[in-house]
Design goal:
elongated, mainly beta, single chain, 4-stranded antiparallel β-sheet
C-alpha cells in the first residue's frame, strides 16, 4: 500500500504566473525525485511457524514526482507513506529549499508501529540533509528500526533527485 500523504508547493508560483502577461515566462526550479520504500513487520503469522524470517510481512513501493518551486528563497514540502503487515507504517517527509544555484533538501524518515497502519506510536526515525547543485543529481538512503523488537520491524527509504532551472 502506497499513498501520497501531502503536497504543498508555495502559492507564489500561481501568483507569479497569474500576474505575468501571457507572453512572459517565469524561471522556476524543477525538482524530480524518485524513490522507494521497503518495510517489514516482525509479527509472524501462524502459518509461518516455526519462526521463519522469509515469511515476515513486507511491503515495497516506488514513486517518481516532479515539482516546480520558485528559484529564489522558496520552499516546497512533500511526504510519502507506506504500510506493512497492517502494523508498521513508514513516512518520509521532505522539505526542498530553492536557491539560485542549488536546492537544499531536508529529509526525515519515521517508523510507526502499533495495532494498525494509523498508529502514531513512533518507534524509530532517521534524518538526512543534502544539497544538489543545478543540472546535477544526488540522493541518499535512510533506515528506521525498532531496537526493542530486535530490529526486525524496519522502514528503509532511498531516493535520488535531479534539479534544473526551467522557464514556464
Amino acid at each position: 500500500m502506497f499513498t501520497t500523504v501531502s503536497t504543498s508547493v508555495v502559492v507564489v508560483i500561481l501568483a507569479a504566473l497569474a500576474a505575468s502577461p501571457a507572453h512572459a515566462s517565469v524561471q522556476m526550479r524543477q525538482i524530480t525525485i524518485s524513490g522507494s520504500f521497503h518495510l517489514q513487520d516482525d509479527d509472524v503469522t501462524a502459518w509461518c511457524l516455526p519462526y521463519n524470517p522469509a515469511c515476515l510481512p513486507k511491503a515495497s513501493s516506488s514513486f517518481t514526482k516532479t515539482i516546480l518551486v520558485p528559484v529564489y528563497g522558496a520552499s516546497a514540502t512533500q511526504a510519502w507513506s507506506a504500510c506493512a503487515g497492517g502494523e508498521v507504517r513508514g513516512r518520509a517527509d521532505f522539505v526542498f529549499y530553492s536557491f539560485s544555484s542549488a536546492v537544499a533538501v531536508n529529509h526525515n524518515l519515521y517508523m510507526f508501529e502499533g495495532s494498525s497502519c494509523n498508529s502514531t506510536d513512533l518507534d524509530g526515525q532517521d534524518a538526512e540533509s543534502i544539497t544538489v547543485v543545478n543540472d546535477w543529481g544526488g540522493g541518499g538512503s535512510t533506515r528506521a528500526t525498532d531496537a526493542a523488537d530486535g530490529y526486525l520491524d524496519f522502514v528503509e527509504f532511498s531516493f535520488y533527485l535531479t534539479t534544473k532551472l526551467v522557464w514556464v
